[in-house]
Structures are given as C-alpha cells and as structure tokens.
Amino acid sequence: MKKRTLFIIILSFMFIVIGGIGTVVTQGRLNTERENNAINKKIPTKQNKKLNINFSSSTMVTITKSDDNNIYMNKQGVDFKLDKNKQADCTFSEQENTSILTINNPTTNNNSLYPFSIINFNHYTDDTVYLRIPQHYDSVNINGENITLSMYDFSANTIDFDISNGNISLNDIRANYVSQTKKDTDFIIEESKVLEELSVASKQYSIHVLNTTAKLMKLSTDMGDIFTGNTKGELDIASENGDVSVNHTKGKSVITTKHGDILFHDDSVDFDTTLTSTNGDINIETDKSSIEDNQIDFETILGDISIFNKNLSSDKKYKTNKGKISLKASTKNGEIDVDELDSEDTHYGYD
Q: Could you tell me which residue ranges the DUF4097 domain spans (predicted)?
C-alpha cells in the first residue's frame, strides 16, 4: 500500500473519530441546555366551576386531566434563538366562579434548525406546551389563533373551543356538550362520549368524527369535507361545497349539501335518513333489505337513479311504502346510486 493511500485512510479515520466525539459532546450539552430551560409550573386553584384558557400566540398544546386541584404547565423544548426571559410563560387569575389562564408561547418552531445535521435538533426544541387541568371545572373554554391542540382523557360538563386557523384533535373525551365556533380549523374527535350535543362548524377545513357517541351531532362546513365512522346518535350535517361521508351510524340522519357529494355507507338502515344535495351525487351503500323493506323516496331532476346496478333512467322518482323506516334521497343535478354492501361490512375500519 502506498504511503499516500495509507495517510488518507488514517486521516479519514481520525476525522470520523473526531466527528463522533463532537457529536456525543454536542448532544450532551444540548441535553443539559434542554434540562436547564425546562418549564415546570404548578398553579394552585380554587374550586371555581369555569376555566378560560387563552393563547396569546401560536402554540402547540396537549391537554389532559390533573389528579389534584393544581394546574400543571410543562414545556421541555428550548428555542436557542431566544433568551430565557422570552420562553413560554403563563399568567393565572381567579375571579368570582371563573379562573383565567393565559399562555404566551413565543418560541414556536415549525422547521428544523439545521436540516442537514445528523443531530435531530427538533428533539431539543420541542415546542409543545403540556397542560394538566383539575377536574373540578364544569366548563372549559379554550381560545386562540394558530393553535394545534391535542386533548385526551379529559372530562367536563361543557368544553367550548374558539380556535381559528388551527387543528383540534380530541380523544377519550367525556362531556355533556362539546362545541367549536365556526372558523378555519380542522376538527377530529374519536373514542369519545358526549351525552347531549356535539356542535362543530368550520369554514374551509374538515371535520372527522370516529367511534363517538352523542345525543345530537351538528356538523357543518362551508368548503371542508365531513367524515363520520361508527357513530351513535342523531346526525345533523350540512356542507356548502364539501363532500360528506357517513359510515355506520345508529340514529336519525339529516344530511344536506349544496355542491358536494354524499356517501351513506351502512350495513342496515334502521333509522329515518334524509339525504339532500343540489348539485352533488348521492351514493348509498347498504344491504338489500334496507331498500326492499323500508319506505323509499328517491328523486332527481336532471340525474339518473340506479338501484343495485339496475338503471332507472326513465324514472326520475322511485318510491315504495313498506316498513316503518324512511329513507329519502333527492338531488337536482346529481345521480342517485344504491350499491349492495357486503354482509360482513358491519364496522368502519378494523375491529
């Protein structure tokens, strides 16, 4: 082996060793910096019944229950571009029957600090604020703009959101009332139980409801899509320009769109169902008995009607008068199609 080649090999090995040592040292310092800048606040509370949570800046937040009467705020990440005085902070005040928590989080990091680095700086700059809330609050109101919110294992009588340009994700929620004001916000709720009313309105973003029970679900969008799967309770759904997909539901359904399509997918229609669109198509996927043994009222003005692959193009109306359950579908400019559903399709997704 030539001396020059041997020298290059040794030099390359030295660079690898030095780089490895530098990485270990840097990660150690980053861990220390992260621990030194961690925010851990414990806020004692009175037995007030109402809590207002206000976010004064863009924030990613995770909320769950507290096991005592304290509010806990934790944040592990640190923004290396800001000094300690500019890290996330909160103020808390209590008025008669109402507690007010205001959070300022000026350190939102959406992009990697060094995208080509072998060190994952996002691990050390995690910008999520973690809140644990006492369970003595009957009413929780959450307000903010550009908020990415995750809430799980939480219960209250009323949970109200007034969030714009954000994302709301709820899991394992127990409440009598849950609502989101009509703004540009993606909304997802799953594995939850709402005893009275779930009311969600969005302008351009979508609404998803999965494995959730509510006495009444009022869902509406201007341009976003609406999707439900494995729901129990009455559905009142409306969309101007978005599509609606309802999959396996137990309860009366009234679904209306102006320009969007409607998919109603259920192995058995056991409750009165009304599907109405002005310019969209209506597709019903169900078993034969739901069509043959129920009161059917289908009507289209400019479209066609097809039932189990039988085209009724010569008829713009199709009616029967059997059974006690009513299934109505009407569209002005769209098609109405009924397809047979596999008998084993009794649940959306996987059991």
A: 49-338
Percent of the chain's residues with pLDDT above 90: 66
Task: List the structure tokens of 203.
Answer: 């302008």
- What's residue 245's pLDDT? 97
Q: How far apart are CA 179 and CA 229, in angstroms?
A: 19
**Are residues 247 and 266 in contact, defined by beta-carbon separation less than 8 angstroms?**
yes
**Tokens 């069509």 identify what position?**
291
Handedness of CA 145, 260, 346, 219 (dihedral sign): positive
DSSP at 341: P
Structure tokens belonging to residue 194? 């709402």
| CA 231/CA 253 separation, integer angstroms | 11
Q: What's CA 33's distance to the chain center, in Å?
A: 34
Three-point CA angle 345, 228, 201, nearest 5°: 170
Contact 56/103 with Cβ under 8 angstroms?
A: yes
C-alpha distances (whole Å) from 196 to each of 177, 178, 215 are: 6, 9, 5
Q: 178-208: buried (b, 16+ CB within 10 Å) or exposed (e) per residue? A: bbbeebbbbbbbbebbbeebbbbbbbebbbb
Q: 344: Cβ–Cβ under 8 A, 6 or more apart, which residues?
A: none
Provide the 3-class DSSP secondary structure of residue 77: coil
Concatenating the DSSP letter of every residue in 136-160 gives T-SEEEEEEESEEEEEEEEEEEEEE
pLDDT of residue 263: 97
What is the H or E stretch that residue 28 is in?
Answer: helix 3-36
Spatial CB neighbours of 70, under 8 Å, sequence gap ≥ 6? 42, 43, 44, 45, 132, 134
Q: Once rounded to an integer, what is the mean pLDDT over residues 128-132?
A: 93
* Distance in Å from the first CA to the final CA of the chain: 64
Query: Of 283, 277, 290, which Cα lies nearest the Cα of 305?
Result: 283
Q: How many CA atoms lie within 13 A of 185 on its CB side?
A: 27
| Dist. CA 285–CA 289, nearest whole Å | 12
